[in-house]
Write a structure and sequence with these properties.
single chain; globular; 94 residues; mainly alpha; 0% strand
């Protein structure tokens, strides 16, 4: 990711997701990037192509959150989406 974008809210998480996708790792940050891919790319951020293993990223994200044992998966899922939205909104303002 462009170093100038690292000051945006949530950039560390988005950057990790991009790196995970490049390395074909199915992680929470990678799935978050997949969910936000259309909006992120329309704002000018290149995201790596993801393969068929990331169909229905919203469902896979929620399942992974549950699998990793978060106490309140629904709240954590929503917090992640808010983090993605914050990053996308800041990116769109550049």
């Amino acid at each position: 990711m462009n170093p100038g974008l690292m000051n945006l809210p949530g950039a560390d998480f988005i950057d990790q997701g991009i790196q995970d996708l490049k390395n074909s790792r199915l992680t929470i940050p990678a799935l978050l990037v997949c969910i936000g891919k259309p909006r992120l790319e329309s704002a000018g951020l290149h995201t790596p192509p993801h393969s068929e293993f990331v169909k229905e990223p919203e469902l896979k994200l929620y399942a992974l959150i549950i699998q990793e044992g978060y106490l309140d998966p629904y709240s954590y899922y929503n917090a992640l989406l808010r983090r993605l939205i914050s990053f996308a909104q800041a990116l769109e303002q550049l």
